[in-house]
TrEMBL record, chain A:
The keyword Metal-binding does not apply. Component of the glycosylphosphatidylinositol-anchor (GPI-anchor) transamidase (GPI-T) complex that catalyzes the formation of the linkage between a proprotein and a GPI-anchor and participates in GPI anchored protein biosynthesis. Binds GPI-anchor. Heteropentamer. Part of the GPI-anchor transamidase complex, consisting of PIGK, PIGT, PIGS, PIGU and GAA1. Interacts with PIGK. Signal peptide: none annotated. This is GPI-anchor transamidase component GPAA1. GO terms for cellular component: GPI-anchor transamidase complex. GO terms for biological process: attachment of GPI anchor to protein; GPI anchor biosynthetic process. PANTHER family: GLYCOSYLPHOSPHATIDYLINOSITOL ANCHOR ATTACHMENT 1 PROTEIN.
From TrEMBL, chain B:
Heteropentamer. Part of the GPI-anchor transamidase complex, consisting of PIGK, PIGT, PIGS, PIGU and GAA1. Interacts with GPAA1. Interacts with PIGT; this interaction, via a disulfide link, stabilizes the expression of GAA1 and PIGK and links them to PIGS. Keywords: GPI-anchor biosynthesis, Signal. Pathway: Glycolipid biosynthesis; glycosylphosphatidylinositol-anchor biosynthesis. This is GPI-anchor transamidase. GO terms for cellular component: GPI-anchor transamidase complex. It comes from Sinocyclocheilus anshuiensis.
Length: 607, 330
């Protein structure tokens, strides 16, 4: 009995096979989520918004385009945000105009966007509701981007402002915001509006009440073929599904082609191509959500419980093109329906996956996939717990062991934990703080210095087990690694569980790569092979694989060297996102996931 | 001999004539009521429930047009649609799309408005248990000769009607309230019309006499809304009340249309739901009940060119009592 209990989950036993089946079941469940009969059709949950029952009368498409050209000309002349022109244009349309200047120093230069010391101005105009008290507001924003981008968005914004000013049925104030330096400007505006952390930003003078919803426009051409909806925000947070439903309903009403992840919906779900199309759309959403950055200017609103989405106009190679007036009508309809809201959007789902715009998977359907992976860790931990309690039974059975009946010393278990976490702290703090020193000694730029320091610290962690065990007196015991593994398994289960609750995609992707190696890791496995497996499934390589898969999915595959450069830029973006907007992916990986992985690395080299 | 017969005839003619006047006087009170009241209640608030306010206001309009004055109408509206910020045509409530008919007009008197429309206030109005400080316009000052029309609209379910998103009135409470009214002799006959989902469940439990009830849908059916207006952006009316309004627009104070015509309003082909009615507690035959008995305030005026002899003490009492009755109910 004791022997049976001791070797409960050894390879080739029933338990071991059960765990493998669990893992495969989790993968199959996840992939099956994109299969159309397993998904639900989207529907409007909010009663106050009702159907698309409005009459859209916006017709100033030409005016929007001419405003776009003026904006472009003034932008070139000013070499940035044409503040005076924009203020005058908004005031001429009867809005209350305010500006906000902000400045921000990045921890190291951002090579993708080529900025380091950022200084800019946000300009926003408030359309006051003619009869309502100033308690609630809606926000429509367009970014002021350098070059040729997003001129039409600003032009449409001004044309809409003029049209909206003539209507009397607004129950909320409408704020028309043009932000500079995309997310940095948006962060400054939101912090100034909500009075959270106003260091470095001048506080806002004009306010309009609590914001109920926000829409961000990105439009860079005079005619478009389709509209893309972007939902993923900071830390993988998503707006209420009703906002996507509203967009989809109006696209259908006006006959506008709408896409999500840039992919158009297909009708043939029962064919292999149809299924792969839906699966690809869902995988793109999962990858975008996992990386935790805000994929549109709307992403920063979500933290303040403001439902927001970005709408991007795409000019593709299709026959049927739509003009700016149609987009204006779509926005008019959406804003009019949002105007009818009495409370914030809360009736529909906040956690979902979208294989297409008309089908969704809610949290109740996708969470079991993660649950199956967590069960593997917990069963392993249970097996170890039972195993650790079994030595007394062994003595009874008469089998002699060389080990001590009492537990291992606390030091042997605590040391790897502490050292792993210290390495994690080093991975989190040192790259940014040591960049000057690195730049002095090596011929690299600051960004490269930061990223390469991070990679170096990560690799240095691999050498740890050999070094720490030389320092410790006495050898590790059989009990020792089991206790460490039990602690590490429970720790990993808790970590992944909490991550999956907040950001399912991140939790699931980490679980898929970490669970198989950590559950089966023991010091008795062949060292070289298991070390290779552990390294290949470590968090850093997971990021690398995700980069390659993402590039494949957006139909822009990259070679290995390009992929490596992308991987390095992903790391630098992650650190920047954390420093600028408070994204939690980099701290989570550096301070918690990496130390956890290091603990298992320690177990592998336990002797 | 013939002269005696002739004199006998001459003497009996005034007596016969007084009998004739008596029967005519009896017929004057054949419907049993001398005054009309109306209690019209809309129980929903919020902009997307525009149609419930429009329902109530269209019944108010018909009832006023057919003669019931504001002093005899208790109008309860849970929200103000005409002045809602989202109304693109402020100070109007339309019942037909393309803004054909504005039922708000400029002489609407709302007695209970906004948060005053509660279950408690509704039951107090019906039973008369109001604090002494309540103004006359908020009271139902009916007596045992009053015919009362009660119209309810809003969101309902099987056995309940929702008041303002926070409370409900059940069909048992309503039945008990009517029983209180009967015992306190607060009505002569009562017509109860309800336009909600599963409306028929609300009159299932009535047990007091002289009640007639109509509902827009049976238990298990939903009452549907009629037309959206795209410029305003909401549904304007519910189907049942829309066709009820069309029917009532044809009725004028002298119309002889009776309750059987009212039961035929909005058959299933038009309403999608099946309207129901209940007449078992009503003593008269519905075919003899005029629409104007409940929806209008019709005074029967008879011009007499003859003098009436009041010397007989029995005759005098009858006519003076009738005369006094008419006076108190102005």
């Amino acid at each position: 009995m004791g022997l049976f209990m001791q070797h409960l989950c050894e390879p080739d036993t029933l338990c071991h096979h059960f765990l493998m089946v669990c893992y495969l079941a989790a993968i199959v469940w996840f992939m099956g989520l994109a299969f159309e009969p397993f998904t639900l059709r989207t529907y409007m949950s909010e009663n106050a918004m009702g159907s698309t029952m409005v009459e859209e009368r916006f017709s100033s498409g030409e005016r929007a385009l001419s405003l776009a050209k003026e904006f472009d000309a003034h932008k070139r002349k000013a070499g940035g945000m044409p503040m005076e022109w924009l203020v005058k244009a908004m005031q001429a349309r009867g809005l209350e105009v305010f500006t906000q200047s902000f400045s921000r120093k990045l921890p190291f230069p951002d090579e993708n966007k080529e900025r380091y010391m950022v200084r800019g101005t946000n300009v926003y105009g408030i359309l006051r509701a003619p009869r309502a008290p100033r308690t609630e507001a809606l926000v429509i924003t367009a970014p002021c981007s350098p070059g040729n981008s997003n001129n039409q968005a600003v032009g449409l914004l001004l044309a809409l402002a003029q049209y909206f000013r003539n209507q009397i049925f607004w129950a909320k104030d409408i704020i028309f915001l043009v932000n500079e330096h995309d997310l940095i400007g948006m962060q400054a505006w939101l912090e100034g509006y909500h009075h959270t952390n106003i260091t470095g930003y001048s506080p806002l003078q004009g306010r309009a009440g609590s914001i109920q919803a926000a829409l961000s426009l990105e439009l860079s051409s005079d005619v478009i073929t389709s509209l893309d909806l972007i939902l993923e925000g900071l830390n993988g947070q998503l707006p209420n599904l009703d906002l996507a439903n509203l967009f989809y309903a109006f696209c259908q009403k006006l006959g506008v082609l709408c896409t999500i992840q840039g992919k158009l919906q297909r009708n043939d779900w029962d064919t292999a191509e149809g299924y792969t199309h839906a699966a690809q759309t869902m995988m793109l959403m999962v990858l975008k959500q996992a990386c935790g950055r805000s994929w549109g200017d709307h992403g920063l609103f979500l933290r303040y419980h403001i439902e927001a989405a970005s709408i991007r106009g795409i000019n593709g190679f299709r026959h049927y093109k739509m003009d700016v007036a149609t987009i204006g009508r779509l926005l008019e309809g959406m804003v009019r329906k949002l105007n009818n809201l009495l409370e914030r959007l809360h009736q529909s789902y906040f956690f979902y996956l979208l294989p297409s715009l008309s089908r969704f998977v809610s949290i109740g359907y996708y969470m079991p996939a993660f649950g199956l992976l967590a069960v593997i860790l917990l069963l392993r931990a249970l097996d170890l717990w039972v195993n650790l309690g079994a030595p007394a039974l062994e003595a009874v059975d008469g089998v002699t062991e060389a080990e001590q009946p009492s537990g291992p010393g606390v030091l042997t278990v605590l040391t790897p934990v502490v050292i792993s976490h210290l390495t994690g702290v080093a991975l989190y703090l040192l790259p940014v703080h040591l960049q000057e020193m690195a730049v002095e000694h090596f011929p690299v730029s600051e960004t490269e210095a930061v990223v390469l320091t991070a990679v170096a610290i990560y690799t240095a962690g691999l050498a740890l087990p050999h070094n720490t065990q030389r320092l410790l007196s006495g050898e590790g015991t059989e009990q020792g690694w089991k206790v460490l593994k039990l602690t590490a398994l429970l720790y990993l289960a808790v970590l992944l569980g909490c991550t999956a609750l907040i950001n399912f995609s991140l939790g699931f992707i980490l679980a898929v790569t970490l669970v198989p190696i950590t559950a089966s890791m023991t010091p008795h496995m062949p060292k070289a092979l298991s070390a290779l497996a552990m390294v290949l499934l470590s968090p850093a390589f997971t990021i690398l694989y995700c980069v390659f898969i993402y590039q494949e999915l957006i139909e822009a595959p990259v070679s290995v060297s390009e992929g490596w450069m992308l991987f390095l830029s992903v790391i630098s973006q992650g650190i920047l996102d954390h420093a600028l907007y408070g994204s939690l992916v980099y701290p989570l990986l550096a301070l918690f996931i990496y130390p956890c992985w290091l603990m298992f690395w320690n177990i592998l080299f336990w002797s | 001999m013939r002269i005696f017969a002739f004199i006998h005839l001459l003497v009996s003619i005034p007596h016969g004539y007084s009998n004739y006047v008596e029967t005519k006087a009896g017929q004057f009170f054949s419907s049993g009521h001398t005054n009309n009241w109306a209690v019209l209640v809309c129980t929903s608030r919020f902009w997307f429930n525009y149609r419930h306010v429009a329902n109530t206001l269209s019944v108010y309009r018909s009832v006023k047009r057919l003669g019931i004055p504001d002093s005899h109408i208790v109008l309860m509206l849970a929200d103000d649609m005409a002045c809602n910020y989202r109304n693109p045509k402020p100070a109007t409530v339309f019942s037909h799309k393309n803004m054909e008919l504005n039922v708000y007009g400029d002489d609407v008197e709302v007695d209970y408005r906004g948060y005053e429309v509660t279950v408690e206030n509704f039951l107090r109005v019906l039973t008369g248990r109001l604090p002494p400080s309540t103004p006359r316009s908020k009271r139902l000052l009916s007596d045992d000769r009053s015919n009362i029309l009660i119209y309810l609209t809003g969101h309902g379910g099987n056995g309940f009607l929702k008041f303002q998103d926070s409370e409900e009135i059940s069909n048992m409470e309503l039945a008990d309230a009517f029983e209180q009214m009967w015992q306190k002799r607060r009505y002569n006959e009562l017509l109860f019309i309800i336009d909600t989902c599963q409306g028929a469940s609300m009159y299932e439990r009535f047990y007091s006499p002289n009640l007639m009830a109509l509902a827009s849908s049976q238990v298990g059916e939903d009452s549907l809304s009629h037309q959206p207006d795209l410029a305003i952006g909401v549904h304007l009316m519910d189907k049942y009340t829309f066709y009820l309004l069309e029917f009532l627009e044809e009725v004028h104070p002298a119309s002889q249309a009776n309750m059987n015509d009212l039961f035929k309003v909005c058959p299933q082909s038009q309403c999608v739901s099946t309207p129901g009615h209940r007449t078992d507690l009503f003593q008269r035959d519905p075919g003899s009940v005029l629409i104007t008995d409940f929806f209008g305030s019709v005074r029967k005026v008879e011009i007499t060119k003859d003098t009436i002899n009041l010397t007989s003490p029995v005759d005098r009492k009858k006519y003076i009592t009738g005369f006094l009755c008419c006076q108190t109910n102005l």
